[in-house]
Amino acid sequence: MLLASNPVALVLAPALGALMTVWLNWRGMFVAVALTGLAVSLLYACGLPKVATPVRSERVTRDPLRRVLRSAAVWKICAVNFALNVLIWGFLSWLPTYLLKVHGLDLLHVGLYASVPGVAGILGMLTGGWLADGWFAQREKVLLVGAVGVSTVCLIVMLNVSLLPVVLICQALIAFSLKLGFIAVWSLPLKFDDTDASGSTAGVINMGSQFAGVVSPAAMGFLIAANGGQFTGAFLFLIVCGLICISIAMTLRGDSETRSAEDLVIEQPR
């Protein structure tokens, strides 16, 4: 539920950004966004309740980052998160340009159509949370592989079919399935036994997504420029990343019977 707020912004931002650009020009749009950010910062600073910090014993707080860095499972999930977010960042960051240049849409329609993945992403996150707690509990790997597989297939369809209705359906399915996979990834560390290292675990895993945010848009831009503005190379790049994500995810052990210190449980300090 909490993570579903991210795609809500993807719904509102493209549509409102396009409308504000038409009404206020791009400078006015930037001023409006800046003022909104200041208002949200004030609400964040003044509106959140203070939470008492729990007291932890010396035994459980000793070298949590070191334990995490020695866990093969954490690094596998980090790699999966990287590949998954290469898909998310690459697809979402270049989707407006793709609609604008390849399908010849005007700026207003680009903003409206680019908000469709946000709606699909909200549904994907909520559905992913429900499935991870229900049908795919202890089988998150299956959910992850299936979700990324659907995204990869849709990318292949978009690469070979240029009809706008088909493209719009595929982009909605991609956003839905990628956010489904995103929830599946983050449900894995929640099942770790070493809850005292949860902060370090989240930091290492999230490093993969942040690195993807740097690499993916730049790689997409380079491939598009190198191919004379064509998106074929960029789509192939995303498809390969999807296959890599699936391959690494297949090496994870997701069921409760096979979890051990070598798979999804970080070794506790002695």
Automatic annotation (TrEMBL):
Stored InterPro entries: MFS (IPR011701), MFS_dom (IPR020846), MFS_Na/Anion_cotransporter (IPR050382), MFS_trans_sf (IPR036259)
GO molecular-function term, one example from the UniProt record: transmembrane transporter activity
Main localization of the protein described in the UniProt heading: membrane
Membrane topology listed for this record: Multi-pass membrane protein
Localization per record: Membrane
GO cellular component terms, semicolon-separated: membrane
Keywords carried by this UniProt record: Membrane, Transmembrane, Transmembrane helix
Protein name: Major facilitator transporter
Organism of provenance: Caballeronia arvi
